[in-house]
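lol ok so funny story. i was supposed to be doing the assay writeup but got distracted and ended up predicting the structure for this chain instead. priorities right. anyway since i did it might as well share w the group, maybe its usefull for someone
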Amino acid sequence: MATRKYEGKKFELQTSTKIVDALTIEEALQININDKAFTISMRTPGEDANLVRGLLHAEGVINDVHFIPDIVLKKENEDGIVTIVNVAIPEDKLGEGYSNSRSLLSVSSCGICGKTELGDLAFIGKTIDDKDKMDINGINRMFEKMKTKQHDFKQSGGTHAAAAFSIDGELLCTMEDIGRHNAVDKVVGQLIHSKKIKQAKVITVSGRISYEIVIKCFKAQVPFLTAVSAPSSLAVDYAKELGITLFAFCRDERATCYSNAQRTKSVQSNIKAS
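and the output, tada:
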């Protein structure tokens, strides 16, 4: 259940019409770790286990990418929407991110809060040095594949999407959420659960790119990140530093590469800078 019907009045050309619109649901999910509150995520209900696993991976709370923790429903609201989950993580599987536990309204986990200089990257680890090259003429096909899976967006127009692909353009998974960052976390969580994270080479997102999404992409060790809209300056800076090939303005058979363009191939005249 990703949408909810709302009545409204639409004003157009000096006329008004009563309408019923499907709007994307946004609800809070409290994440407990070992029965202690860790954080709250505002998200679209559904795929909660994937969201939680992806978020804890991005935050460095779990130190083993292959570990699948038990995620237990603790509470639902009157609409049957999960509001609290508990994640059981043995002490030897807890990463440094757990010691940074904080009570916050987590609309986007970036894992780099408190870092003040771009050069301070030791906390992240080795940059991506992937040798694969991506045919930029395949970018549009990836977005078309993701678009066919945006069922919630077709109903409400209120969700973002993220998807993961192999280097050959095989769709591995796609997720939707009211939050761009949540959609990416859900994708990473699903890749971990399905044991396909090493196959993932490209992440596509339906909106713009901020540095938080670059960090999530890096922590999943995905070398290519592509977006429909613009990147922020900091997103480009981090993509350059972390070894991620970042494409933006990927629409209408166009794409602009802002970092690590050495991984591209088959550049043709129908690919123009935005």
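The domain at 134-265 is CATH 3.40.140.10 (Cytidine Deaminase; domain 2). The two ends are 37 Å apart (CA to CA).
back to the writeup now i swear
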